[in-house]
Amino acid sequence: MDETKIDAATMGRLANALAFICGADHAATKALKKAAETGADKDVKAARSQFLKLKSGDRQAAFAMLSD
What we know:
By secondary structure, the chain is mainly alpha-helical. It has a domain at 26-63. It is 75% helix and 0% strand.
């Protein structure tokens, strides 16, 4: 994943997709929700880090859910 900026609304949608895939209590889901709410650089960085720790299949499934 490159350094592409994702707006807060998209991060929120991605968090919802991850809640379905990984569960609402998953660290990546929580981090994305927090980043979507605050928009703070440190929260966005933490969310990106957690997202990259996911299995590639989970990341691809989350992105696929965004395109629907």
